[in-house]
Amino acid sequence: GGICGCMPLGQQESQMAFVGTGQGAYTVETVYKFVGEGAGEYSNVPLRGSSGYAGVICGASMALLAVLAVVAMLYFVSPTTTTTLQQVAGPPRSCVIWGDPHIDSFDHSVASVYDEGQYWLVNSQTVWIQGRFLATPFTRGLAATHAIAVGGHFLQGHTVVVGPLESGKILVDGKPALTTFPSQQEVGALAKLTYDGQAKVVDDSMSAEDKHVVHMDLPSGVRIEIMRWANHVNARITMMSQWNGQQGLCGNMNGNAQDDKDANSGSAAHLVPQSASLFRHNAPPMPAPQHTLADCKKDPEKYDKASKLCSGPPYSTRHDLKLACLFDVCFAGPQYAMQDGWAASIEH
Fold first, then answer.
1. Rounded CA gap, 94 and 238, in Å?
2. Pairwise CA distance, residues 344 & 330, whole Å
3. Distance between CA atoms of 178 and 10, rounded to whole angstroms?
4. For residue 149, with 0-12 CB atoms within 10 Å meaning exposed, 13-18 middle and 19 or more buried, which class applies?
């Protein structure tokens, strides 16, 4: 038994106690009700029942009142807050892919990939952008960007693939698209594709050529320009950082170029597994022959010529670009010295 502390001010406290031999006998308990003419007076009303059961009811009532008091205090005192999950805003940045191939990341770290394969350019939970690198006669057996594919949840199952003029096609969901020049095409109600000759090229060595450019205006503010040449493509990817993070050769867009360089030191880490490929080809390409600058140094005359072409701005301040330039001049030709320098001078 216990005391139920619900009583009017100034009235003697009523108590309950067990009686008899402890076998659960009953005793009189007290409850209150309003009487009179609405003046709020109290009158004792005897109630018969188990003292143990009544104590439980009284205790539960007091606990409920305490909980309600705490809830009311939190409601009126605590500020109301709402938690939302938002995509990182910030200005859009660009990643540029050119040559055989070089990738200048969103955070301006240059990676060079000389092996054939399919690689992640951008890999997030929603946005998938992949590059297929294959050797071409133009690059003397070195890999170049043969095609770029776009897909992922942000396109709701649609895919867009753009290859070069002579050995590639433009495909939307596996079917030929933009078959005339110039032309436009919608991808569902999500994206707009435009095919024309208007673009700022990413390498000056191709500026005199006729331009065939696919512009993609995609969901989430993603914009891609793909320049189609005879045997390869160059590209510029412009987008905002993804709130759930992103990886790939274009980097993580966190403002730190060094961690892009560290992540891209082993480009094989960005290979696309066959199960995630957007290209739908029958078999993965075979690895290209491995070359290093040590091979170039075996021919002192060639290496000296490459060193002269790859000196001065921007190579004097960008060691990563200088190494890429030396490699390109040694194994693909001197025209790549100008191409590498021009691409590095572009503001993203």
1. 4
2. 19
3. 92
4. buried
Q: CB of 279 within 8 A of CB of 130?
A: yes
What residue spans of the chain are helical by DSSP H? 51-77, 257-264, 293-297, 300-309, 319-331, 335-345
Taking a C-beta distance cutoff of 8 angstroms, is the pair 35, 42 a contact?
A: yes
Task: Say how far apart CA 219 and CA 209 lie, in whole Å.
Answer: 31
DSSP code, position 52: H
pLDDT in tens, 40-55: 554 444 544 444 555 5
Dihedral, CA atoms, 179, 184, 187, 190, nearest 10 degrees? 160
Residue 340 has pLDDT above 80, yes or no: no
Q: Cβ-count burial of 111 within 10 angstroms (0-12 exposed, 13-18 middle, 19+ buried)?
A: buried
pLDDT, tens digit (0-9, with 9 covering 90-100), for 53-68: 555 455 556 666 666 6
Task: Give the neighbor-by-neighbor strand order of the sheet with 223-228.
Answer: 110-112, 102-104, 93-98, 233-239, 223-228, 213-217, 191-196, 183-187
CB 206 within 8 A of CB 143: no
Q: Write down the pLDDT at residue 2.
A: 46
Could you tell me which of 147, 145, 136 has the C-alpha nearest to residue 332?
A: 136
Confidence of residue 246 (pLDDT cuts 50, 70, 90): very high
Is the pTM higher than 0.85? The answer reads: no
CA-wise closest residue to 220 among 307, 322, 152, 162: 152
